[in-house]
Specification:
The protein has 84 residues and is mostly helical. It has three helices and no strands.
Length: 84
């Protein structure tokens, strides 16, 4: 071994060329789509009861029961229980 070769850092294993080699274009795209989908679904929940009552003409009691069921499921999952 020559002194220059001994001083050089070892090359990374095959498939691990860079520090962020796992962060491919597909991974970035899927992360962005997931982020936007999560934001869109969070923005939809406050508007959904208005849409159901005004546009579709659903009774307020039906919207309340649906919202209560959805709230119970979310509280159950937040407490560590399995999704129903």
């Amino acid at each position: 071994m020559t002194p220059a070769a001994a001083a050089a850092p070892p090359s990374p294993p095959a498939g691990h060329a860079g520090r962020h080699s796992w962060l491919t274009r597909n991974v970035r795209t899927l992360a962005g789509v997931s982020f936007l989908q999560d934001g869109a679904s969070e923005l939809l929940y406050p508007v959904l009861p208005i849409f159901l009552t005004i546009t579709l003409g659903a009774p307020v009691a039906v919207v309340g029961v649906g919202g209560g069921c959805r709230g119970d499921r979310r509280r159950h999952e937040a407490a560590g229980g399995p999704a129903r």
